[in-house]
Amino acid sequence: GGPVIILNPNASDMLPLRKWPLENFFLLGATILREYPAARLVITGAAAEKETAAKLSLRWASPRVINLAGKTTLRELFILYTVADILVTNDSGPAHFASLTDIHSIVLYGPETPKLFGALGNNSHAIYAKLACSPCVNAFNHRFSPCTNNLCLQSISPEEVYEKVKECLIKNAESEF
Prior knowledge:
Blueprint: E1 4-8, H1 22-35, E2 40-43, H2 50-60, E3 65-67, H3 74-83, E4 86-90, H4 93-98, E5 104-109, H5 114-117, E6 124-128, H6 151-154, H7 158-175
Helix pairs in contact: 1-2, 1-7
């Protein structure tokens, strides 16, 4: 009955600079659960991210949270994108996969710029702090960066992302009429 919001924390160690802090995902999810009593959160991720996603899911202690990390095929993930309302993810494969559907995807950028590597599609919304040191990771430097502290992503607050979630939910509600 309520909105379905997918959180993809992308907790793997493949490119740690692209990770939005897990605590921010937790705070965002807690706000969504509090402000939207009918909302459901779905956590997605690869098999290597199952344990981290499970710990994150348990922290909310809510029956409205479903952890699907490591439990879906790519095909099932596409289907999930077609039935959910919003995806929140850092810059990763799911942001680009989601752009093939109508889901609103909120993509958090930091070490890479959405101007070059942004997900395409009418419903893809980039949040990018635009710090002077960003972008520091790209195809031209073989994804190597001397950065060890991704302030570019840490400076994106859960409140800023939540405001974009609200905006997308309003757009979805308006399009139903």
